[in-house]
Amino acid sequence: MHSTTRRCCKTNSDLSFERNDPGCWGSDILFQHDNAPVHTARAVTDVLAGYKRELLEHPRYSPDLAPCDFHLFPKMKEHIRAQRFETEEDIIQATKVAIKNVDKCSYVTAIKDWL
């Protein structure tokens, strides 16, 4: 199994979708992810099937269903464009700074557009 697929399975398992208590996930939850190969790998789809939740299809290149791709990521790229990073930690720190520099109204707009 590819390491990214393994991490995706572990993350999904850690979310405890099977719990139905009000403080966690309700029984009426719908689950949607993009069509990235790691999300559609057999190992991941098997894990998701075990949660017995409805899995919604996600059309490719759909700004209304992937607001981060069209609202957040382009704004983050403005802050990290043309930089070279020496280490993975440098990338993580630059990404954190970029996220903090994105105007909070952009997040609200993205979520409102998505809803």
Automatic annotation (TrEMBL):
It comes from Elysia marginata. GO terms for molecular function: nucleic acid binding. Transmembrane segments: none annotated. This is Histone-lysine N-methyltransferase SETMAR.
